[in-house]
Amino acid sequence: MTIYQDNIPVLRSVNQQLVSSGFKTAKEIAGWMGALQAQDYRMSKWAFGIRLRNSTEVTIDQEIDSGAIIRTHLLRPTWHFVSADDIYWLLDLTAPRLTAASKSRDKQLGLTDSIIKRCNGILEKSLRDGNHKTREELKSELERFKINTDGNRASHIFMRAELEGIICSGSQNKGRPTYTILSEWVPQQRHKNREESLKELALRYFTSHGPATIHDFIWWSGLTIKDAKKALEFNKDYLLSEVIQNQTYWLTETYKTPGAETDEIFFLPAFDEFLISYRDRSASLSLVDNKKAVSENGIFYPALLQNGQVIGTWKRSIKNNRVYLSKNLFGPVTQDLEEAIFKSSVRYSDFTGRSTAMI
After folding, report:
1. Position 87 pLDDT exceeds 90
2. Taking the C-alpha atoms of 293, 299, 304 and 307 in order, what is their torsion angle to the nearest 10 degrees?
3. Parallel, antiparallel or unpaired: strands 303-306 and 309-319
4. Which residue, 31, 41, 151, 359, has fewest beta-carbon neighbours within 10 Å?
5. Do 87 and 180 form a contact (C-beta atoms < 8 A)?
6. Full 3-state SS string of the chain
7. Residue 248 burial by CB count (10 A; 0-12/13-18/19+): exposed, middle or buried?
8. What is the pLDDT at residue 171?
9. Burial, 154: exposed, middle or buried (Cβ in 10 Å; 0-12, 13-18, 19+)?
10. Mean pLDDT, the chain, as a whole number?
11. Crossing angle for the helix pair 41-49 and 26-33, to the nearest 10 degrees
């Protein structure tokens, strides 16, 4: 099959498991995708739900609470959900560069190596032996030992402990995320050498996110240009390429041919991989509409997707255990479109376990 410009967003919809997903668990989705951005905690659960037919927020919570999927800082860096099977080799690959990159900001915040070491010790002592504590509880613990957590200091203290493989997400406390000790929560440590890790990360990305360019992969992975090129070279036997408008796109030989177009609407969560994982998003989001879907400071709003194209944004609010959804469409509103949006809103209602109304 020849890849045409119009094929790109539709193929991505299939590879990203929005269309015809055969997976049954969030852990399987996380393993397939490599990592899913998760800075918006509640929305990141829906990032799994939209890729898992018949899933609910309860089933995703169960996988979080069992340690099947782990939320931590990786890649660019920002929050990501990953499979517990992948957490160690991903940290081995990405953490050293991220730690080095944070040194300057740590210095500005007065977080010296000795202070970081002291903080790590406090966190380890507080969380060891199976304890799971919220961010607020751990901040109080640090402050008890005269550690200043004002400003961005707390965020950097926790991120350094994550990058050093000391802490990770734990079981939730009344729906709120917690931290726990990584080595206790995920005792089976699966490591790879650097070459294996580079190869695996690139293969996961182009399999699940393709067609994509090396510039997209560099953006998503946070790797250097040199390492990204190595990673792509390691996979030349497993990937197909196509030049479209002077850009080389890559995807795996095992890609699925998309079926006939449907009118189904996808309520993409904020910061969903379908948009944020590409440096160039123009295949699905026009430059005219980009400013409506992405703020000037990089906030990716929840988006409405149809046939691989972003056609608007949406918001949600919860009142009296009822979910209210509102929409902002970029183009003309037809009765067929309204009906398709309402039909898809029912799927979100089923996921949350709450009745839903479009407003």
Report:
1. yes
2. 80
3. antiparallel
4. 359
5. no
6. CCCCCCHHHHHHHHHCCCCCCCCCCHHHHHHHHCCEECCCHHHHHHHHHCCCCCCCHHHHHHHHHHCCEEEEEECCCEEEEEECCCHHHHHHHHHHHHHHHHHHHHHHCCCCHHHHHHHHHHHHHHHCCCCCEEHHHHHHHHHHCCCCCCCCHHHHHHHHHHHCCCEEECCCECCECEEEEHHHHCCCCCCCCHHHHHHHHHHHHHHHHCCECHHHHHHHHCCCHHHHHHHHHHCCCCEEEEEECCEEEEEECCCCCCCCCCCCEEEECCCCHHHHCCCCCCCCCCHHHHHHHECCCCCECCEEEECCEEEEEEEEEEECCEEEEEEEECCCCCHHHHHHHHHHHHHHHHHHCCEEEEC
7. middle
8. 98
9. buried
10. 93
11. 90
- How far apart CA 188 and CA 354 sit, in angstroms, is 37
* 8 Å CB contact between 180 and 132: yes
Instruction: Please state the rounded mean pLDDT for residues 20-29.
Output: 93
Instruction: Output the CA–CA distances (angstroms, integers) from residue 129 to 182, 186, 283, in the order listed.
Output: 11, 13, 49
What local confidence, expressed as pLDDT, does residue 356 receive? 84
Is the whole-model pTM more than 0.90? yes
- What percent of the chain shows pLDDT beyond 70? 96
Backbone conformation region of residue 129, classed left if phi is above 0, alpha if psi is from -120 to 50, else beta: left
Q: Give the type of residue at 266.
A: F
Q: Where are the domains of the chain?
A: 1-24+192-359, 25-185
Burial class (CB in 10 A: 0-12, 13-18, 19+), 173: middle
What confidence category does residue 321 fall into, taking pLDDT thresholds of 50, 70 and 90? confident
Residue 245, pLDDT score: 86
Residue 314 vs residues 30, 144, 222: alpha-carbon distances, Å:
25, 42, 29
Indicate the residue type of 52: L
Predicted local distance difference test score (pLDDT) of residue 106? 93
